[in-house]
Every structure is written in C-alpha cells, then in structure tokens.
Amino acid sequence: MRRQYLGIALLIASAFTGTLAFRLATPAVAFYTRDILKASMAYLSIISASFILARSFSALFSGLLLEKRKSLVYLGALAMVGNALAVNLYPFTSSWLHVMGIKLMNGFLNGLAWPIAQFVIAVSSPKEIRSRVTALYFIFGNFAGLLGNYTYALTQGFGLKGQMYFASFFFFLTALCMLISYWLLYEKIVPKKEKEGKEDKAPINPKKILMLSALISLLSAFTFGEITYIYVAETLNLDKGTAATLIGLIGFIATLLAYIPSRFADLGNERKVIITISVLAGISPLLAAVKNPITVSLGILMAIFAAQTFRPISRSILASARRASAAIGGINAVRNLSTTTGQLVFGFAYSLGEVVILGIVLKAALLIFAPASLLLFGIAIKINDKK
C-alpha cells in the first residue's frame, strides 16, 4: 500500500514539475516569437496548432503501444528527457518556422508522456476516490501553471536562453519522478483487461464523452497556448509579465474549484457534473468576447474550469473500460485535435477585429464559436437520457 501511494504521489509531483517547465517556456517563446521574430497572430496560432496536432497523434499512439507491451510505460519518462533537451533550441531560432519545428517535437514528446501518466494514475488509484486523485493530479499541474507564469515574469531579465535552462531542469526532474513512479506502480498497470464486467461499463456512453471532449476542447482552445497570452495582453492593454501572471492565477483558481465536482462524480453524480460544465464551456467564449477585464477574466475562468473538471472525470470514467490505455489515449487525441482546430480558427479570425452591439465592444474572433456552443448545449441535454 505504501508503495502504491508513493508512486501516486510521485506522479502528482511530476504533474507539478512538468507543468512548471511548460508554463515557464510557453509565454517566453510566445513573446519572443511575437516581439523578436515579428510573427503575426495567424503564425502564432499555427505554432500552437502544430504543437497540439503533434501531441494528438502521439497521444493515440502511446495508448496503443501500452497494449502491446506494458514495459513501454517507461517511454513517457524518456519523452520528458527529450523535452528537457529540445527547449534549449529555442534561443537559436531566427524564424517562426524554426519555432514551429521545435514545437512539433515538443508536442510529439508531450503526447507520449502525459497520456501515459494520466492512464497510470487513473488505473492505480482506488476506484472509490479515483476522480479526486485524478483531480489532484491536475490541480498540482495547474498550481505549477501559476508558478510557471509567475516565474516567467520574474526571470525576464535572464533572457530566453536563461529561461530555457530553468525549464530544462524541471523537465529532467519530471522524467525522474515518472521513472520512479512507474517502477513502483508497475504491478498496478493493466493496459487491457481480458473481460469486461458490469463494473467496467461507463456510466455515460463513451461516444458522448468523446463528442463532449471535442466540443469542450474546441470552445476552451482560446485559453491555451501562445495566443492566449497575446489576446489578454493586447485586449486588456497589459504588459507581458502581468498578462502571464493573470492567466496563471485564473488557471489556478479554476483548477482548485474543479476539485469540488470530482467529489460529486465519485459519489455517482457524473451526469449532473458533466451537464453543468458543458453549459459553462458553451458560455465561456461568448463572455470572454466582451472587451472588459471582468468579462474576459470570467470567460477564461469558466473555460478553464470546464476543461479541467472534464479531464479528470472523463479519465476516471474511461479507466474502468476494457481497453483503458487506448481509451485514454484516444480522448487525449480528440482533445488535442479539437484544441488545434479552435486555436487555428481563433488565430485566423483575430484580424476580424471588434464589433459593437448595443454599445458593448465584442471581439469577433470569439463570437464565431457561438454555433459550437449551441451544439454543446444540445448534446448536454441528451446526457439526461440514460439509455
């Protein structure tokens, strides 16, 4: 039992150190690409999309690999070592295309590492507290998101090269935590079950889970990646450090709140929780479109809360499936593809500027997500059908 809990604790720690490294690097690379390399928002959206597209491909690949050979779980730790080396290439770039190439590499490596970690922590946790343990994993990751953004603000004087050294160190530490954790939890890892009993049936149709994942990820895409920092800084007229700190703080608050629904999910109220977060996800881009510090902050808060609540609960539901590793890898792939689509749409629509309705200034780039919001509301209503 001690071995199990130590392994789980190390995986939660890896979420912290890995996200800290990622969130330190993301704004540093974003502002470097925008200000030094003079990349447009469209190019920045392509960079973000390339990262997520590569991550979606390797996420599905990682789940299928685990079904073939359980020992490949250690590939996740090796991928983090690759991240630690790759981030040191950013200071040597002279074009947004170079940045995109490194982002593709980072995306592929992250797509291998994180779905494996999510799968292991879900299947190795006691079923009666699985949603809460998985939520803690994401909470620690998002606390690191706040700290990573704050660290970026504090280390601007070190330049991009110095900041990447910091990120590299924490990626190496993440790899070490993962390596030890997988060794401790190895006997608990069951990528594919021989038979599917009653306890393995998901309380919600997996197809609906995938559709919800696609839409929630699409609608919350504006809160992830390089484009988020630029949008907040330029819309609210904030400096780089303040924008990064604000985004990190909002993300941390949203993820702390996301632990509360996980408690209800563990008690068998998954449907009510998912309906609630679907409504919030649908409203979020429309609220963030209003050019006002309060509405932009609330819109981002609701989007991150919905996404961070859905992630642990959906993984907890799918962990009891017969092909758990493939299912979790698949939902990561769907999420990444939808996020890619959302970021591309948002980035290319950014130049549409603003519209004024009844004296309210709105960002057109977020208003175009309204049809997807309506579709999400419709699917959420169908969740009430238990058949």
From TrEMBL:
Coiled coil: none annotated. The chain crosses the membrane at residues 41-65, 72-92, 104-123, 135-153, 165-185, 209-231, 243-261, 273-290, 356-381. PROSITE patterns: MFS (PS50850). GO terms for cellular component: plasma membrane. Keywords: Cell membrane, Membrane, Transmembrane, Transmembrane helix, Transport. It is found in: Cell membrane. It is a multi-pass membrane protein. InterPro entries: MFS (IPR011701), MFS_dom (IPR020846), MFS_trans_sf (IPR036259), MFS_Transporters (IPR050171). One of its GO terms (molecular function) is transmembrane transporter activity. Residues 7-387 form the Major facilitator superfamily (MFS) profile domain. The keyword Transmembrane applies. PANTHER family: INTEGRAL MEMBRANE TRANSPORT PROTEIN, RESISTANCE PROTEIN MDTM, PUTATIVE-RELATED-RELATED. This is Major facilitator superfamily permease. It comes from Thermococcus paralvinellae.
